[in-house]
# Entry
Amino acid sequence: MNIFESHESTVRSYCRSFPVTFDRAEGSLMYGVDKRAYIDFFSGAGALNYGHNHPYLVEALTSYIAHSGVVHSLDLYTRAKERFLEQFVQTILIPHGMDYRLMFPGPTGANAVEAAMKLARKVTWRTNIAAFTGGFHGMTLGALAATANADKRAGAGVELGNIIRLPYDGFLGVDTDSIDVISALLETPGSGYDKPAAIIIETVQCEGGLHVAQSTFLQSIEALCHRLECLLIVDDIQAGCGRTGSFFSFSESGIQPDIICLSKSLSGLGLPLSMVLIRPEIDRWKPGEHNGTFRGHNYAFVTAAAALEFWRDNTFATQIMANASFLRSRLKEIQTANPTTISEVRGRGMVQGLVCRSASHGAAISKAAFEAGLIVETCGPQDEVVKLLPPLTIDHAVLDDGLSILSSAVCGIAKNERAA
Ligand SMILES: Cc1ncc(COP(=O)(O)O)c(C=O)c1O
# Structure
């Protein structure tokens, strides 16, 4: 038994699927202590969109450390935070025509979601937040209440309340438009649904099974929020920071959320950093009303500011979309070759995956791929979707190699199935 098994809590999870001790990581590759290389299609669950140890980000951080830049500062003004704010306004907000205040909650995605929901309740004086079937928003009690996954919810130990659940785009099948049902529930007098403080939505349900909300659905949800005078919160923690092609995952739809949650790849290097974007009119926090020790860490500000260089023009977005269409076509090929094992290709941009007909095949494919040198995780309520999250900076050849490993893993499972 190794030190992890003897002393680390049983709560550990990803290491059970990928049971290797990792030592180094560079770009799209992770290396075990035995120096074996693994292609990384997991990317820290979306926290490593620019790959591991991107040299430009490492250089920014090491030079900041070398000149004794402030490390910890609560929410004091620092040069590192100032540079990040300036860069974010110049590179992201102004070009997108967006006007938002930036709030730094604790360092995790769940911290951003908690802050967003708390602010929505405070601003509207309403208690319920509307969240979707398949939604994932984090593991702290408020965020967990908004999360749909039954296993995750079961760990709460208390009642998870003040959430109403709405059907996500496509949840009710092709013949029923979710928006009609949502509107009927929330706008019919006597439906029993109180008006919510906010509707919280992911544009792609990255944990919930790679379901994608169409632009028209997002636009209808925005219009509904206006009619109900409730806030629209987009949880862009996993789908944002370029994962679907543009910096924000909702840009294509043209919606203007009241609150946007970012985290994961915001710092670029994998350092913990979360941010809540708030429309100025609803930035009604009292000073210190949502406090915390680690709100905006300076090392993360330094690398986050450097990572924004990727977004100075359209070059990076164009590269992401080229990789994404290659990914789509290769996944479609895998599906076509294995129709009895794979039912569908789902997702958008650089978060796409294979839906397995049998739930147990998700884990089996991930295991076989790992044995052949590819790290790829599963998602969905029963882990039935093999989910690909390659770094956005991945070389075409490495992406191709990883997809070949995945293809062999799927073919192997399909063959075993036929033999059984
Ligand atoms: C959409 C979304 N929201 C919130 C979270 C929670 O983030 P964290 O794990 O950093 O608390 C996640 C994590 O996977 C996520 O994907």
Remarks:
- The pocket of pyridoxal-5'-phosphate is lined by residues 45, 108-110, 113, 136-138, 202, 206-207, 235, 237-238, 263 (CB under 6 Å).
- The two ends are 34 Å apart (CA to CA).
- The longest strand covers residues 342-348.
